[in-house]
Design brief:
230 residues; mainly alpha; rod-shaped
């Protein structure tokens, strides 16, 4: 009898315990309605685009920063010996912004220094433009991602309160709360996309600045070489 009583008490206690609800990201997306699903889909596309641009630019900038340490020394030797063609050939062998800037300067040897400097600056602007290609899109995603996510949350909140108003304030709090936390998932998703894009953008800016400084140092070295007394 005692054992039966304890078993019944345990069963009644188990029935009275609230069922634990688990959150599934897929369920949150699907339960968010058409508006929430569309917003999440847009954010996912933006995330894919941001990651593609980041890694594509990262590999391009890394390739652009690779230059032979003896490159400028060899160019100086060729120019000092008057072997301009050898200097041009050496520049053509090096596929980097530094080599292309130097090649532009070498091709203008014999012109006034001001013209050579202008030609190098114009070539440098073109190289910087190529390095920064599509990086502005990453910055746009970093700013637009959180706003799109917040837009999805606002839409979800409007729908939740519309349901509350339609039921004359008699809507179940559980249903209302569920609609609100589903709506908040778009803000979370937007912040994740924005943070990833923002970090990627700033990392690419730092990497690009290093290459730009390298080009500037090379241009200064080349102009100093032309200014050296014969």
């Amino acid at each position: 009898m005692l054992a039966t009583f304890l078993q019944q008490a345990a069963e009644e206690t188990a029935e009275q315990m609230p069922e634990e609800k688990t959150l599934s990201f897929i369920e949150l997306i699907l339960d968010g309605g058409i508006a929430g699903t569309v917003v999440i889909a847009i954010l996912f596309i933006l995330l894919v685009v941001a990651l593609y641009i980041y890694f594509e630019r990262l590999f391009a900038i890394k390739a652009a920063s690779k230059t032979d340490n003896n490159f400028m020394a060899q160019i100086k030797d060729h120019v000092a010996n008057g072997n301009i063609e050898a200097a041009k050939i050496r520049c053509a062998q090096e596929n980097s912004p530094v080599a292309r800037l130097t090649a532009k300067g070498v091709s203008r040897i014999g012109s006034p220094l001001e013209d050579i400097n202008t030609a190098i600056e114009n070539a440098g602007r073109l190289e910087v433009y190529n390095l920064e290609k599509n990086v502005s899109i990453l910055a746009t995603i970093a700013g637009a991602g959180p706003m799109i996510g917040f837009l999805g949350t606002v839409i979800g909140m409007v729908l939740a309160f519309h349901e509350l108003a339609s039921s004359s304030g008699q809507a179940e709090m559980g249903t209302l709360a569920e609609g609100i936390y589903v709506a908040m998932t778009t803000t979370v998703a937007g912040l994740i996309v924005g943070i990833i894009a923002y970090i990627g953008y700033n990392h690419l800016v730092v990497k690009t600045d290093k290459v730009v400084h390298q080009m500037e140092a090379t241009a200064v070295d080349f102009l100093d070489l032309l200014n050296e007394p014969a």
